[in-house]
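Render this sequence as a predicted structure.
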Amino acid sequence: MFNRIRTIRKRWLVLFTAVALLAVGLTAGAAFAAGAPGPGLGFGPDHDARAGHGHRDLEARLLARVAEIIDVDPATLQNAFTTAFNEIADAEFAAKMDAHVADDTLTSEQAATANAWFRGRPADTGELAFIVASTGNADKVSRMLDRGVAKGYLTQAQADAIADWHNRRPDFLPERSHKHGRHHRDGDDDDSGS
C-alpha cells in the first residue's frame, strides 16, 4: 500500500511539474516574443507590467503552490527550473552555432569558442542572455541595461556583470537577423546599425 501511495505521488509530481513548466514556458515565451526578459529568471520582484514583467507575483505563487502540493522545498523547485532553463538555453545557443557552422558562417573552432562564451554568462540572466548575445553593439546593450536598472528589474551589479560579459563577446559572432520585424520600446534605435 505504501509503495502504491509513493507511486501515485510521483505521478502527481510529474504532472504538476509539467504543468508548472508549461506555465513558466508560456509566460517566458510570451515575454521573449515581446522582446522582454522573461519573468522569474532573476530580474527582481518588481517587474513593470507594461514591459512584459507583470506576472512575477503569479509565478511566485504558482511555484510556491506547486512546491506545497508535491511536498518539495520551493527553493529546490526554483533551482530545478533555473537548471532546466540554463540547460535548454545552452542547447539552443549551441544549435544556433551548429547552424552557423553548417552554412559556413562560422568554423567549428569559432562555434566552440562562442559556446564557451555563452556558457560563461552571469547567473540568472534568463532570456536577457539571448538578447544581449544577439548583438555586438555595446551602446545598444548599455541602453537596454540602463533601462532595466531604471525600471527596477535589474540591479546595477547585475547590469554591470552582463555588460562585462557582453564586452567579451567574440567579434566573429553574427548579428541576429530580424526577418520578422520587431517593435522597439522606449525610443530604441532600429537594428540596422548593429
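Summary. The chain has a mean pLDDT of 76. The chain has one domain: 2-177+184-193.
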